[in-house]
């Protein structure tokens, strides 16, 4: 995948900050310019949310974080950047002015994207010297989780620019969809505005309140649209007879006076008061930060669920996530400092997420094994058994596991795990893993596991290749000098 | 929760059949009337999809399935029913006629709901003798998974009827939302129609194709709406300043010519051809059955993800699922035949779902432990350690586990598990669980586990009460006569 080498963010509010988070978590350095006195604080908060979300989202090895530098001018920020993202307030004159300054200060090869949610790219690129590399890249909040960027070119944008932008978004986990023509508000905000206008009428006319309207959406078509959108959902509704049948069946409604959209509601003080009061009744018990946290956890859970879709291939945003993770695995987490083999290896830092706890808030039994398995995966990557190796047809499979539970972990608890190699030969690898409470260093659970190196197509164990054994050797030799941990060799219920 | 005792479904297409599936899977008998010659086949197919979905959706003990009886007349079908659901084709005269017949044939106390997606309840109840117990209960496809029913009363509907309907939907896992006033198409279809009209313009004007439009939805606000809907999402967008700020900021767009909804597109042959061709290009590689399967798996995954939301409390549809499951646990699966203790207990039948496999399609290591843990839960329920028992402050906790992997399971593989009690005293319970391939009876994995009875508040082991030990005793005594399974007492890597 063609990657961004260095990014610049002009405008560092919620949107610009979340772009910056996307970039730095994918290992890309960002130079940021925003004259707002609070910019550094806002970007820091957004980055904090993004890091928290990514820790729940993926076990793939994130590269070392890129660096954010706050610059004193647009010129300073864009220097050396090959992707510049403009996210200043939504006023045509302001945006056009900023984009023209960016254009003048950068290499003509650099891509320049605008986060505008509605302005036409032709209007924005009017005064540029190199307008062919300018486009709209309209993201959705929270930008660090939702993968969509609508890519829209203006009259002077080259088709190659849009293709290049699409390619460069993939390695940061985003899906650039290219629109055929520019219109104000593009596609997503057109659809949202239609629902918004109809929704305002429903509240205005007292058909329902805001909470009921939200319930209607989230208990029904919201969950259909999270995975399939409008047309594919209706294709299924049409049954075996297909889309034509659906259109024939539901077409007549178009001529019925079902929506009030032929008229536009007057958003006067009375309607604003009504909506604000209903919204307070619906959501006011929780602060915005809490709602953001819940939203992000839900989005993570939905994306992980979709990652398992279509027989494990991934579906919708889950497929984008799977591709992002594959990219991260292949990339292998980048250059990290050489681990120290003179003690059990600390391989994993994680946190008990919402999907890991039972109704009492305790970490569920099988999630411990998930952490043990993820820890073992980290060891395997360390000795060259990475994604490419497994895809080429060999791997290590677990054949036997012994687990002891020594303590409890609750929702939000930070954990880390260490691994000590106990014994190994050309086929066998036996090791001991411990999960710790990261605050107290108390051991919560231990596992002794035995793995065999296998030819996964033939389905039988075979000797590991020289390369892998060579990487394993210094670890095994160093760990052989360590004391054997208490608990090794136990059978279930054995007296101490 | 106030429960439906017996249901009648008048009309057995995709919607009526899915209502029937909701009822029978919640243990309610259904009498069905539909003169269509294919009705029995269609209902059977929908029920098959629903059973497949529920097997993935929940580990809670479903009650013994209700019975579906196909009747020869409306009169025969509605006899003795306390909930009658009408789902005949969407024509006012036909529906009114059917509803009037239902009314005449039933006890005046029975609730009568209509599945209409747009007709006004006042128009439908016009000729009824007991119109006060009639309402619209508008569900969304697939009815067996999506929890929403819009409850809408007509001029003659009593408020008590809507409350009673809401109460009776909860034990079948549905959320009835009550609208304040009737309008054609209610709330959900109003919003859908607004998006549909705007979407048709976007395709008509070649701004994008159907696939791009769907991608825009599913990679962005679709995932937001699956959990929160419109107003709560915008509340977050307003930030700490709240809903008023959001309204002030985005209100002006209402006066911009952003949507074309002031006009309605002509759905002529050219536009139908365009949409059908684009939809074929987008989704034609997969049949409708395959798309349905993928949709249901995704919905299951999304609901399970949302069940873990809000710190494990459940959020949105996940909270509805959690409440449904709690109801099932408390209900305890109803009367089942006495298990046979003279062999290891077959406690669980399941299937390898999409969320359980790695990218190779193999069941992931930690999901085996999930099946072992779920099997142990079934044993615990058998001896009275059920939801209420655990909530009251005592439980059995796993302290030690030994797992052997003997084979592999792939996506879709049917599995079952058996459990043999090895030893027990007043605090300790040691047992041996085996997971089998349900087609070949090959053992895929075994676990030996030790549990301790605990006071979960005090966090220490205590003797189990007499009741629990008394239920455990006959199982333990019968299993003591069985041979000790091969593998018991092993430590990791021990020679056979």
Key terms:
homodimer, 18% strand, L-carnitine dehydrogenase (chains A, B), Rossmann fold, EC 1.1.1.108 (chains A, B), 496 residues, globular, Thiol Ester Dehydrase, Chain A, N-(1-d-carboxylethyl)-l-norvaline Dehydrogenase, domain 2, NAD (chains A, B), 3 domains, L-carnitine_dehydrogenase (chains A, B), alpha/beta
CATH class of the largest domain in chain A, anyone?
Answer: Alpha Beta
What kind of assembly state do the chains in view correspond to? homodimer
State the domain count of chain A: 3
State the major sheet of chain A. Answer: 8 strands, mixed
Q: What is the CA–CA distance across the termini of chain A?
A: 54 Å
Count the strands of chain A?
14
Tell me roughly what share of residues is in helical segments of chain A.
Answer: 40-55%
Low-confidence stretches of chain A: none
The most extensive interface, with participating residues per chain, is: A-B, 162 and 164 residues
| CATH homologous superfamily assignment of the largest domain in chain A | NAD(P)-binding Rossmann-like Domain
What's the CATH architecture of the largest domain in chain A? Answer: 3-Layer(aba) Sandwich
Global shape of chain A: globular
Number of helices of chain A: 17
Topology-level CATH name of the largest domain in chain A: Rossmann fold
Q: State mean pLDDT of chain A (0 to 100 scale).
A: 89
Proportion of residues in extended strands of chain A? 15-25%
Taking strands numbered 1, 2, ... along the chain, how are they ordered across the largest sheet of chain A?
3-2-1-4-5-6-7-8
């Amino acid at each position: 995948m063609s990657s961004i080498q260095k990014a610049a963010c002009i405008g560092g509010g919620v949107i610009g900050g979340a772009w910056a988070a996307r970039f730095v978590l994918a290992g890309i350095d960002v130079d940021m310019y925003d004259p707002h006195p609070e910019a550094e604080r806002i970007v820091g908060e957004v980055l904090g949310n993004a890091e928290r979300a990514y820790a729940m989202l993926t076990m793939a090895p994130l590269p070392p974080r890129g660096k954010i530098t706050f610059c004193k001018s647009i010129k300073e920020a864009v220097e050396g950047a090959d992707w510049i993202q403009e996210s200043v307030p939504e006023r045509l004159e302001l945006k056009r002015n900023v984009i023209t300054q960016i254009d003048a200060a950068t290499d003509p090869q650099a891509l320049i994207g605008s986060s505008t949610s509605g302005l036409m790219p032709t209007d924005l690129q009017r005064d540029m010297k190199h307008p062919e590399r300018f486009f709209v890249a309209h993201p959705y909040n929270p930008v660090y989780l939702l993968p969509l960027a609508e890519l829209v070119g203006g009259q002077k944008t080259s088709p190659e620019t849009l293709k290049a932008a699409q390619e460069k978004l993939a390695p940061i986990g985003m899906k650039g969809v290219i629109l055929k023509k520019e219109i104000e508000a593009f596609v997503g905000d057109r659809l949202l505005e239609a629902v918004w206008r109809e929704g305002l009428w429903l509240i205005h006319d007292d058909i329902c309140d805001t909470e009921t309207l939200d319930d209607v959406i989230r208990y029904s078509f919201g969950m259909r649209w999270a995975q399939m959108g409008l047309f594919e959902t209706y294709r299924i509704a049409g049954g075996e007879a297909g889309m034509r049948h659906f259109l024939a069946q539901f077409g007549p409604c178009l001529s019925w006076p079902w929506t009030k959209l032929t008229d536009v509601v007057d958003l006067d003080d009375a309607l604003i008061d009504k909506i604000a009061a209903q919204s307070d009744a619906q959501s006011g018990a929780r602060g915005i930060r809490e709602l953001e946290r819940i939203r992000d956890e839900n989005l993570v859970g939905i994306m992980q669920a979709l990652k398992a879709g279509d027989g494990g291939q991934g579906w919708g945003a889950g497929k984008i996530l799977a591709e992002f993770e594959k990219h991260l695995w292949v990339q292998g987490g980048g250059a990290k400092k050489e681990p120290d083999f003179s003690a059990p290896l600390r391989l994993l830092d994680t946190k008990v997420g919402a999907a890991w706890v039972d109704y009492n808030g305790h970490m569920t039994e099988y999630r411990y094994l998930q952490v043990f398995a993820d820890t073992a995966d980290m060891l395997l990557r360390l000795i060259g058994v990475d994604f490419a190796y497994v895809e080429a047809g060999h791997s290590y499979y677990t054949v036997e596991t012994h687990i002891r539970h020594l303590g409890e972990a609750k929702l939000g608890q930070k954990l880390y795990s260490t691994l000590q190699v106990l014994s190994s030969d050309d086929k066998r690898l036996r090791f001991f893993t411990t999960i710790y409470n990261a605050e107290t260093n108390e051991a919560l659970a231990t596992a002794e596991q035995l793995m065999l190196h296998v030819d996964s197509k033939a389905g039988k164990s075979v000797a590991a290749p020289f390369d892998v054994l060579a990487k394993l050797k210094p670890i095994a030799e160093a760990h052989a000098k360590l004391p054997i941990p208490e608990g090794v060799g136990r059978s279930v219920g054995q007296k101490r």
